[in-house]
Amino acid sequence: MPRPRTALLAALLHAAAVAPMLAQDDLRDTVTRADGKVFTGRLLTPHSPDELLLLQGGKRVRLARADLASTDLLADRIRESCARRLRLKDSPKAQWFLVEWAEAQGLPGLARAQAMLLVLDDDGNAPAHEFLGHKKGPKGWLWELDGRWLAREQLENAILEKPYEIAGERFAVVCDGGLRTNVAALLDLEHLAVVCHDRLGAGLQLRESLAPMRIVCSRSVQTFPKWGFRPVPYYVPAPHGDVGRTFYAGAGPVRPEKLFFVGTQALLHHCLIGEVARANDRDRTCPWLEVGFGMYLENLMAGPAGFAAPGELRAQDLQALSALGRDFRLSQLLHLPMYGGFYLMDDTATALHWSASTMFVAWLLDPGNDPQTREPFLAYAAQALGEKKGDSSSLFDRAMGRRVEEFEAPFTKWLAKQAGF
C-alpha cells in the first residue's frame, strides 16, 4: 500500500498527535468498508487518493480507499447545510427548519449559529430563542452570559468589555461588539471552508480541521492590533498564536475586512502547513502563496453577509501589471518575506507585492491556460506549503516544467486582457 512521503508523513503524524485531545469524543465521521465493517471517528485525510487516516480518540486507523464501500462525513453534512441555507435564504420558516436539520445531522455549532441569526433578526422568534436556551423575561428574551441573564442590549454592552466567542464547526469568531454581524461572519467562514476544500482540497491534499479555527473580529481599527504600519488582517500561526485577526471599517460595516483572506490563512495553516518556526513569529513557509491563495478566495466569495457563496472571480486593481512593467520580476515575488514584503510598510512597493501575488495565483489557477498551469501549480504549492519546501525557485521551475522567468510574458498578456487592453 502506498505511503505518504517523509515530510508529509511527519506533518500527518503531528496533526494526528494533537488532534485526539481536541476531538477525543468526536465520532461524527463514519466509514464503511466493503467487507461490512464500520469505523467511526474523524477522517483527517479526506482528499487522499489511496490511504485514509481515521482518528478515534488516541487511536489511528489506516484504511485503503479502494477497500471502502461508503463514507458519511461531517464535511459532507456541512456542505449540505451551507447549500440549503443559500437555497432557502428568502424563507424565514425554512431557515428555522434548517436549525432542526443541522442539529439532527450532528452539527450543533451550525445549528446554534443559524438560530442566533434568526433571533438577532427577529426577537419574536420563540422557537429559536428556546432552542438557544434563552429565558423569557417580563421585558423580553434573556441571554445567559457567565451565569447572568441579560437582555440583548445588555449583552451587546457586555461584549464591549469582554470578548465573546461564537463557535461553529470549523471556525469560531471572537468579537468585541456587533453580535449580529459576527454571527453572519461565522456562517460565511463556514461556507468558505466548504469552498476551499471543494476547489483546492484534492490539489493541495488538505487535511480536515478537527477543532474550530479562531478568528478575532475587532469592532473597529482602534481596537485592532496592527501588524505593521497599516491595519491589514493577518494570521498568527501556531505556536505563536494560532489565531486570525481582522476588523470592521467604515460606517455601518456588514462584514469584517478581508474576512475570507484571513479565513483562508487559517485553513492553510490548520489543514496543510501546520506550525511554523518557534524562534520567529514572523516566519512563514511561502509568503506569496499564502497571500495569493488568501486573496484568490477573498475575490471569489460574494453575496450578502451570512449567505456568502462563490461567484465570478473579481479582478484585483491590476497593479501587478505595472509592477511587471518596472524592475520587479516574478522571481523576486517568490522570495518576499511575509512581514517585510506585505505588512511592514504602507507604500507602493508593498501594494504591488499584494497585487502581484494575488493575480499570479489567480492566473496559475485559471483552467483556461494553454499550456495548463492549474494542476502543476497545485502540486507545487502542496510541496512548498505542505512539505515545507518553502520559496525555492528550483522547486517552482521543476514543478511547473519551466523557469519562473518564462511565465512573465504570458502572465503579463493575461493581465492586460483582464484590464481590457
Rough outline: globular
Class computed from helices, strands and strand pairing:
alpha+beta
DSSP, total strands: 15
Round the Cα radius of gyration to an integer and report it.
22 Å
State the helical fraction: 40-55%
Strand content: 15-25%
Termini, distance in Å?
52 Å
Count of separate DSSP helical elements: 16
Low-confidence stretches: 1-10, 16-23
Biggest sheet: strands side by side, in what order?
Answer: 4-3-2-1-5
Average the pLDDT over all residues and give the rounded result: 91
Largest sheet: 5 strands, antiparallel
Describe the structure.
The protein has about 425 residues and is of the alpha+beta class. Helix content is about 45%, strand content about 15%. It is built from 16 helices and 15 strands. The strands form 4 sheets. The chain has a 5-stranded antiparallel sheet. It has a 5-stranded mixed sheet with strand order 9-10-11-13-12, covered by helices on one side. It has a 3-stranded antiparallel sheet with strand order 6-7-8. A hairpin with a 2-residue loop joins β7 and β8. The N terminus is likely disordered.
